[in-house]
Design a protein that fits this description.
heterodimer; A: 578 residues; alpha/beta; ABC transporter transmembrane region fold; Rossmann fold; 3 domains; 6-stranded mixed beta sheet; 18 helices; 12 strands; 61% helix; B: 583 residues; 4-stranded antiparallel beta sheet; 63% helix; ABC1_TM_sf (chain B); P-loop_NTPase (chain B); nucleotide-binding (chain B)
Chain lengths: 578, 583
């Protein structure tokens, strides 16, 4: 229910004290309100004229309004703090995202990350608003009321005091029973609720198989099963609310009956009796409110936990070990026995990788799927950190990892599908150089072979592209990425991760012509399984099951019958047409 | 008000179900009303009880009835509430079953067997969410509002029995709570909703951009820009939320204020009326206390009303979906075996676009022939497949099988066509069930034979649960090549004479690709195959290659002839084999 880290939020303590004071005043108002109303009623009951109730009625009005104004005051005074805290949390989350980079997204999933930063933080906000105020309400109001009742009539006070833990106990027992039953049903329940989206997503396949019409009946019957399962769970889940409701309402009835008998016996006067009766529902109100918001608080608690977990993820340290770097013809990069193991597996994904590259070499990385090509590229790009520090060096300086800021400022990464931002084409091309002049942007686009396409666009470089805007084909997306690289001539390290894997052969051939000039005078790492690229490489790394099994110039490798020749034979195993 | 009318003008999603399950609905509303009436009655009765008791009547018998009633109402309230909640949830879930079926049918008619993109997947999720929204519309808006109004009516009539002027005053005071304030909420929230949606969608776009393009952001080192992009929407949303909250708090206070006036009215009126005798005066406490439990449902009325703008969009979206359904062509049946597929001078453009996608395209495919279609993306390959399958109809020209237009053969489609696409969908059930979708009457042995034919037998049998292994959502358990083989097994069971291959190897590495293509053409050797491919691996499997460029065929022939006669084809082929030294 309550995450302990909640109390560690900076600046929360004085706010809690303030809420406590407001709640206490509110409890006093509740008592005054009940008392004043009872006085007025008793006066009338004694057949006194209406004029006698003017004072108590005014007191009643004032205390009633005060009570509800205090609710507004509680919210208003606490809200700025919550807003500031969650706003800061959002910023911290973004900072964390930037610091941890794509590895965090890979772990949490893009959708989850976006949901967490938007809806997740909203839920945290609701949670913070609810939890502190409700807990204070539950911790203060009933006891002030009880104290006042005890002051008038100890017997009813004792009854109310005893019934309170009984209610809580029943709530917990029934709640636990519901939870264990719900847990047991959860797997099936989850499956049923996913079934619908699952079916919709697979509709194309169902249509291909000619089952789509018939499946409508299935959708209905699965949904009905879901209803029955849900009702079974709800029936139990609601019993806990029922127990609460039952005991509180019945308690009010019992108190009324008690008071009735005491009045008949002359043990109590009407005024205190009526006051107690008026106060009894308010005594139970906080716990009922708390139970009503139980689900909102539970969701909020989980959201808070998720956010705090991300915020507490350790960041990659020592990102500025490498002080200065401008990659040029004499620079050197060395991997010496580098291994990489992902957090959740035992076997290393990359093991004992060792190679030397220098200057403006063009390095091809080949291997079957799952051989570790992409992981190696990510390691070189600094998006992943090797198991042990000190096995990577640039210009002779040993480094813990390649997540060095200055190294990353020297490199450009072009994946299979470059991400296009929801922005104008101009902003997309000048992403690494936001202040580039128009002429240079146009020149870069021209080199990347985009000029003809831009001429066709309605507003040229100012056309919006990216998600939800104008569609851009895979080939054009690659060309935009190329234009980015052409524009930023200072970045001399190019990392390609299968840039043409999903393009058709004609598009690829045309793209290649524009891409080759970019490779000149740069250090290039090019992971691919399109073999013709090897002809443009002057060094090749052959990967197999996370190991670097062979390396050398293509000519050297072709000479002996090693993994390279074998892989080439398997990959290029087209049957001769001539 | 106007917007509400507009939303329901052509509604087929909300009103019909209210009618269909009307008795259950009446029960839900009755139980909801009884819950709060019991609570009010409990306070009313208790007020009377202690007032009467305070007169110290000689015999217990005088307060016996109120004592029994106090207990009865005390028990009745939670029981009514419990049954109300169960009944309403049951009712809503029952409707949801209908909704799901209806949504499925609406989507099904329009769905295409070709290229279900990610984006359509997202739209489907949105629609599925809409159904949840409509579920909440009932539970959080419709029920509380109707119950609130019924209570309102009940109070007016109840007071009206004693005094019409007071009843009229209550009409005004409580009317503020159940009519004016809720309408105000809708107006305020409706206006805010539009702005909020704008900011949220821009924030969402930026955030998705930042998360998806994170690699580029990190490499660019533009930390400040990265942070600034979120700052403005965060601030704007916070400002909007603040307004929203302030409005809610003060609205709550407003409701309490009018409620206070109503309580005072009852107190003063009863004080002025029940003065004839001491016995009469016992009713004063009853009337003074009775309203207090009613404030809770009254608060829910405004809350429910303010959520209306959210639900409205959902209702409009699903209604729009089911209102523009395509027309159906009369169907005929093909009895003879497929001998020829013809595309006759087909020109095609989408109705809402000027671009002509196919220009006077003709193609004849004989039974058993295997043909490959190539061409850059966007040149109409997928459109041609959609035309072949009958998902689209040509603007000019015709697509026929044995002379019958395919649009008239849609009922027979699964017996005519088998489709293997880029990302075949595996359902969240066992391997056995997934493959059997190809032919529901297939025996276990036939399924196993199909698995063996696609060379997956060793893999499946090595799994701990064998053929009963759950595929897991979206088939994440199996690799790309394995998933293609699983769906190939499905196609084998389906046993249709024409097979459409829509770039089935695009996401596979060359070795897996070659192995898969070898298997595909081996097991489907006696079928007619139309294969869209992005490059030339495995091209020797086909009898005919066609290049589609800008909506027309510009190169065609057997692969061997093309290699011999067409330098462009030779260049592409050699690029694919990695042979050439220069491009």
């Amino acid at each position: 229910m309550i995450d302990r880290r909640l109390f560690k939020i900076p600046g929360i303590a004085p706010r809690i004290v303030m809420i406590a004071i407001l709640t206490l005043s509110q409890a006093v108002m509740i008592v005054i309100q009940a008392r004043a109303l009872s006085i007025a009623v008793v006066q009338l009951w004694n057949l006194k004229p209406l004029a006698t109730i003017v004072t108590p009625t005014i007191v009643f009005i004032l205390s009633f309004l005060c009570r509800h104004l205090l609710t507004v005051a509680q919210n208003r005074s606490f809200y700025p703090f919550v807003e500031k805290t969650t706003g800061k949390m959002r910023e911290q989350l973004m900072t964390k995202l930037f610091r941890l980079g794509p590895s965090l997204v890979e772990k949490t999933g893009t959708g989850n990350m976006v949901t967490m930063a938007l809806e997740g933080i909203d839920k945290v906000q609701t949670y913070l608003m609810l939890i502190v105020i409700k807990i204070m309400d539950m911790g203060i109001t009933p006891w002030v009321i009880l104290l006042y009742i005890a002051f008038m009539q100890w017997k009813e006070a004792v009854f109310l005091l005893i019934i309170y833990p009984v209610i809580i106990l029943f709530m917990i027992i029934l709640g636990l029973a519901a939870k264990s039953k719900a847990d047991r049903q959860y797997a099936g329940y989850q499956r049923l609720s996913n079934n619908f989206v699952d079916t919709l997503r697979g509709l194309g396949t169902l249509k291909q198989l000619g089952l789509s019409k018939r499946y409508a009946g299935n959708v209905y019957s699965v949904s009905e099963d879901y209803r029955k399962e849900t009702m079974a769970t709800l029936r139990i889940a609601m019993t806990s609310t029922f127990a609460l409701d039952f005991f509180t309402t019945l308690s009010v009835a019992v108190v009324a009956v008690f008071l009735g008998f005491d009045l008949m016996d002359g043990k109590i006067m009407l005024l205190p009796a009526l006051t107690i009766l008026t106060l009894a529902p308010d005594y139970f109100l906080p716990v009922r409110n708390f139970a009503n918001d139980y689900h909102a608080t539970l969701n909020g608690k989980n959201a808070l936990q998720a956010v705090l977990d991300v915020l507490e993820t350790p960041e990659t340290k020592d990102r500025d070990e490498l002080k200065q770097l401008t990659w040029h013809g004499d620079s050197a990069l060395k991997f010496d026995d580098v291994s990489l193991t992902y957090g959740d597996v035992d076997t290393p994904t990359l093991s004992h990788i060792a190679f030397d590259v220098h200057g403006f070499q063009k390095v091809g990385i080949i291997g079957a799927s799952g051989s570790g090509k992409s992981t190696l590229i990510n390691l070189i790009g600094g998006f992943l950190t090797p198991d042990e520090p000190g096995h990577v060096s640039i210009n002779g300086q040993k480094l813990p990892h390649l997540s060095q800021e200055v190294w990353q400022h020297n490199s450009i990464y072009i994946p299979q599908s470059p991400y296009l931002f929801h922005a104008t084409l101009r902003e997309n091309v000048s992403f690494y150089q936001p202040n580039a002049a128009d002429a240079t942007i146009k020149a870069a686009c021209d080199k990347a072979g985009l000029t003809d396409w831009i001429a066709e666009l309605p507003v040229g470089l100012d056309t919006m592209i990216g998600e939800g805007s104008r569609g851009v084909s895979g080939g054009q997306a690659q060309r935009i990425a190329l234009a980015r690289a052409f524009l930023d001539d200072s970045r001399k390290v190019l990392l390609f991760d299968e840039p043409t894997a999903h393009l058709d052969i004609e598009t690829e051939a045309a793209l290649k012509e524009d891409m080759l000039p970019l490779l000149d005078n740069r250090l290039v790492f090019f992971a691919t399984h399109r073999l013709h690229w090897i002809n443009q490489m002057d060094y090749v790394l052959v990967m197999d099951h996370g190991r670097l099994v062979e390396q050398g110039t293509p000519a050297q490798l072709a000479q002996h019958d090693g993994p390279y020749t074998k892989l080439r034979a398997e990959m290029g195993g087209l049957h001769a047409l001539d | 008000m106007h917007s509400i009318k507009q939303t329901f003008a052509h509604d087929t999603w909300v009103m019909p179900y209210l009618r269909k399950y009307k008795w259950l609905l009446v029960l839900v509303l009755f139980l909801g009303m009884m819950t709060f009436l019991s609570a009010a009655a409990l306070m009313f009765n208790s007020g009377y009880l202690i007032s009467e008791a305070a007169r110290r009547p000689g015999n217990i018998i005088y307060i016996y009835v109120p004592v029994v009633l106090a207990r009865a109402f005390g028990i009745a309230r939670p029981v009514f509430r419990y049954s109300e909640r169960l009944t309403s949830h049951n009712w809503v879930l029952r409707i949801v079953s209908d909704f799901r079926k209806k949504l499925y049918q609406a989507v099904e008619v329009k769905a295409s067997a070709i290229k279900q993109t990610h984006q359509t997947g997202d739209i489907l999720s949105i629609l599925a969410d809409d159904i949840d929204h409509i579920e909440n519309l009932y539970l959080r808006t419709v029920f509380p509002i109707v119950v609130g109004w019924l209570l309102y009516l009940f109070i007016i009539v109840g007071v009206g029995v004693f005094s019409w002027p007071v009843a009229l005053l209550m009409v005004l005071l409580l009317g503020m709570i159940v009519l004016v304030i809720p309408l105000l909420s809708v107006a305020v929230n409706g206006a805010r909703e539009f702005k909020q949606k704008q900011i949220q969608s821009s924030s969402y776009t930026h955030l998705t951009d930042e998360v998806m393009g994170l690699t580029d952001w990190v490499i660019s080192g533009r930390y400040q820009d990265f942070m600034t992009l979120q700052k403005k929407p965060i601030k704007d949303i916070a400002a909007l939320r603040r307004k929203d909250h302030f409005f809610q708090w003060w609205r709550g206070f407003g409701v309490q204020f009018f409620f206070l006036l109503a309580v005072l009215t009852l107190l003063i009126w009863s004080g002025a009326t029940f003065t004839a005798s001491k016995g009469m005066a016992n009713w004063i406490a009853a009337f003074a206390l009775t309203l207090f439990p009613i404030v809770e449902p009254f608060l829910e009325v405004s809350q429910g009303a303010s959520e209306w703008p959210i639900y409205r969009q959902s209702i409009e979206r699903v209604n729009q979906l089911s209102n523009d359904q395509p027309k159906l062509t009369p169907q005929s049946t093909l009895t003879a075996p497929v001998s020829e597929i013809s595309v006759n001078h087909v020109t095609f453009k989408y109705p809402d676009d000027d671009k002509v996608i196919l220009k006077d395209v003709s193609l004849n495919i004989k039974r058993g022939e295997k043909i490959a279609l190539l061409g850059p993306s966007g040149t109409g390959k997928s459109t041609l497949l959609k035309l072949l399958l009958g998902d689209q109809t040509p603007t000019v020209g015709s697509v026929t099988i044995n002379g019958t237009p395919v649009s008239e053969l849609q009922q027979q489609r699964a017996q005519l066509f088998g489709v293997l696409d880029q990302q075949p969908y595996l359902f969240d059930t066992s391997v056995m069930n997934n493959i059997r979708l190809g032919n529901l009457k297939a025996t276990d042995e036939q399924v196993k034979a199909a698995v063996e034919a696609v060379e997956l037998k060793p893999l499946i049998e090595s799994l701990p649960d064998g053929y009963d292994t759950e595929v897991q959502e979206s088939g994440t358990r199996f690799s790309g090549g394995e998933r293609q083989r699983l769906s190939l097994a499905r196609i084998l069971l389906q046993d249709a004479p024409i097979i459409v291959l829509d770039e089935p190897t695009v996401s596979l590495d060359p070795i897996t690709e070659r192995q898969l293509l070898d298997t595909v053409f081996k097991v489907l050797h006696d079928k007619t195959i139309i294969w869209v491919t992005h490059h030339l691996a495995g091209i020797d499997h086909v009898d005919q290659v066609r290049f589609l460029e800008d909506g027309v065929f510009d190169m065609q022939g057997t692969p061997q002839a093309l290699y011999r006669d067409e330098p462009r084809f030779r260049k592409l082929y050699e690029l694919d084999t990695g042979k050439n030294e220069r491009v």
